[in-house]
Amino acid sequence: MDDPLNGNHTRLILPALCWSRYRPDFYAVTTDLSVAGLRFRAASIPGLGETLTCSLRHAGTLEVLVVHCNKAAFVARVTRADVAIPVMVRRLLDLAEDQDSDPTPRRVHPRFVPDRPDILVTTASGVQVPGRLINVSASGAALQVDIRLEPGMQITLGRTPATVARRFEDGIGAAFLEPLARENIGPHVSL
Question: pLDDT by residue (tens digit) across 107-119?
Fold first, then answer.
């Protein structure tokens, strides 16, 4: 039998506990969903045409009909749910969308530990304090400073204008007002 999910499918990873009147409980994990149904990976594979009850974490309980199976996975079509099927489909699609979004900011530029980490930090009011660079990229730097600098403050790192982007326990993350030229980036960086 051809795999019914070779077309458009949406990635969805949810743990599930499945059972039926004729089989003991077993664990499975959804891998994706499509118009054909939900695909599950499991160590115990039910038979084609078997009806199961599956409790999916964060989604609810479903009654499903197995429409495709192979050695490691099976596809099941939802026949009944603890809510209306269109509501369940929307819930599953929302969960898939939540899983697809990546709230973790990604670094655009590589970070380097400078050969000369000591730097002079100057605030907009002219106060100068020594700092110690932790790392530097084309777009900013992380550094240790002994005074409290608030996010949004304008500062100068050496001769490079920047804004305090975030604070952490012993220092700050600063974003340069203008990215550094690629040839100026590396352990030899001079701000």
Answer: 667 888 999 999 9
Q: Which domains does the chain have, with CATH numbers?
A: 10-100 (2.40.10.220), 118-184 (2.40.10.220)
**For 31-78, how does the pLDDT look when each residue is reduced to its tens digit (9 = 90+)?**
999 888 999 999 989 999 999 999 998 899 999 999 999 999 999 999
Enumerate residues 6+ apart whose C-beta is below 8 A from 5: 32, 34, 36, 37, 39, 68, 75
SS (H, E, C) 37-73: EEEEEECCCCCCCCEEEEEECCCEEEEEEEEEECCCE
pTM of the model: 0.51
